[in-house]
Structures are given as structure tokens and as C-alpha cells.
Write a structure and sequence with these properties.
The chain is mainly α. The chain has two domains: about 120 residues, no CATH class; about 120 residues, no CATH class. Helices cover about 70% and strands about 0% of the residues. The chain is built from ten helices and no strands. Helix 5 runs parallel beside helix 7. The structure holds zinc ion. The site of zinc ion (ZN) has 8 residues, from loops.
Amino acid sequence: MTVQGNILVAGTLLVAPFIGSFIGTLVEDLPRGRLLARRRSRCDACATPLGPADLVPLASFLLRRGRCAHCGAAIPRKLLLIELAVLLLAVVIAVLDPAGPLVPLDFAFAATLLALALIDLDCLRLPDALTLPLLLAGLAATALRQPEALGAHAAGAALGYLGFTGLRLLWRRLRGIDALGAGDAKLLAAGAAWLPPAALPWAVVIAGLAGLAGLAGFAVWSVLRAEAGSVGLMQQRLPFGPALAFGLLMMRLAT
Ligand SMILES: [Zn+2]
């Protein structure tokens, strides 16, 4: 392992919890159009301004035992879980690529996919504000590292976008419903910018299987909560973004 590789891996692991903290704010604020307008700078319960120590991810939560130091109100667990998930992503990526050169890139890809998946789960949207920069970053990374592959990646992105959009319009015509969102096509295109074209079909297959597994899990959960009857499982709108993000990440890490 080179010194440079070590620095890249260590830097990614150090930065990961802060990225997690940022993603926690992003997934709350981006769909609601208040990005950067509201900093997580006060306790939600008593409005006491948070000190610098309260803004250190993970450590502050442990230090305060999950409660506001001033009023004792519980700090939302969701933020802690997101910070842990992002750190876990960084650890897995570092373990898979101990030499290090691609760790920061893979981590940036994975963290953006996680943010997209969480937003899609929350409000059935994949914001352009994330998918389009992800597409451009993927093309830029390919242009820098493998300029000879740029054409193939760009073609993959165009084909992926057109393929999903075609399916969406066809299904709408045949069945009158949107089985895929417009954001799913953009996410697939963004993934294609990062993946070798041959990996793209596999990413879609993994996404389909993950989607089915998610659907089965949702069905079981609905039955357990006895909610399926009234709403009708097949009428539920379920996000495909998390499954697609999973498929893209698996293929990125496998190739
Ligand atoms: Zn408080």
C-alpha cells in the first residue's frame, strides 16, 4: 500500500461521519426546498444554540447520550443512523479497495446514492439537484481516469435514460400508471456514467431483484400491521430509486 493510498483511505474514513451529518440535513431539507436556509444549529425542543462540540457527528451523540445537554430532549435517532450508515459505507469501500486510489471516488458515489435512496423512500422523488451532478461527476471521473472509455460511458448513460423513459411511457400508455419515475431514468443515466457499459444490465437486474425483495418485505410488514386490505398493496406507490441505487453500487464495487 502506498503512502498516498493510505492518506486517501484515512481521509475518507475521517470525513465520512461529517458527510453523513451533511446527508442527514440534506435528506430533510432538499425535498422541502430549504437547503442551507436552516442549519442544524439549535435544539429542536428548547432552541438552545448548539456549541461546536454538539456538531461533531457520532461523538457528540455518544457524549450527550442522545439527549440535548440543556433540556434533555431526545436528539432524533435518524441522524445518528445515517451517520453510522455513511461511515459503514466508507469502511466497506476501504476494505474492498485497500490500495486506496479509488476509495474517495467510490465513497462519493455511494454517499450520493444513499442520499438519493433516502429521499426517494421519504417522498418518492429523486431530485435533479443530486442526479445531474452525479451524472456529470461520473463523466468527469471517467474522462480523467479512462479517457478512452468516455464515449462508451456517455452512450451507456444516453441508452439507459432512453430505455427507462421508453419503458415508463409504454407502461403509462398500456396500463395508465407510472411504474417508473422520471428520476429513475436520470439515476440510471448517472449510474452509467460511473459504470462500464457491460455492468449496466446487471445493475438493473440486481435492482429488480432488490425491488422484489423490498416489495415482499413491504407486503409482510403491511400484513403484520393489518393495513393491506384497505389500501391495496398493488395500488401503493413504491420507490424504485433505493433498489436501483443498490444495484448500481453493487456493480460499482464489483467491477
Ligand atoms: Zn434542548
